[in-house]
Task: structure prediction
Amino acid sequence: MSATRPGDGAFAIDARGLGVRYNLRLTRRTTVRHSFAHLLRPMDGATHFWALRNATFRVEHGESLAVIGPNGAGKSTLLQVLAGIITPSEGSVEMRGKVSSLLTLGAGFDPDLTGIDNILLAGEFMGLDHREMRRRLPEMIAFADIGKFIDAPLKTYSSGMRARLGFSIATSVDPDVLLVDEVLATGDQLFREKSRKRIEELIAAAKGIVLVTHDMNWVTTFCNRAILLEKGEVVAEGDPADVVALHQAHSEQARQEKEAEAARLQLSGVL
Result:
């Protein structure tokens, strides 16, 4: 990942030809016989799987980019590359400014520590001043709104409570770039509304936002640009309403094709 160069251009994220390739041999059970066979026979292309390929896009400061697509399209893989969790197999990405991500926060949480201790730990993890995190602590606690659980170990939290705490931390540390994965679908309507307003404030402050979501209402009413991923590749980019319409059309077509195939198999006696 390239180094940040403040003031050099207006973008927050510049991704060029990103690709992530997985070795399928590492994801399945390997026997001694298989291992010996592969020593005699070189690996072929079928042993590799591209979860992401040729992803090129920019996110400007003050822009909220939605990443949508069917399950398995590569959305989470892309977000993990941007967060620095996965090193791309090809291409490059430059992030300018302080990056905050619920993905990295979740990975850094300690289940045996309390919510408060995890907030302070997250500050250390992100390289923030301890006194500054202490100063912001009441605001983060109030926003997460998880009551007495803030003093309980994280292992007693529900997944929703963990997401609320993570969102509160990630958006309260004044990030230049915020990466969000489905957190806006977490919690009750009140928290969803607070989340929406918080991200709107970040956009107004010229922050760059990347949001991975299956909620098309959020995409069309909240984001100002969207990309559609299918089979690991960007197949459309532009106005959120247009990209959502294409995604829905493709999803409906895939559903009809699946039903037609199931009907064909049933008639042939396979099912």
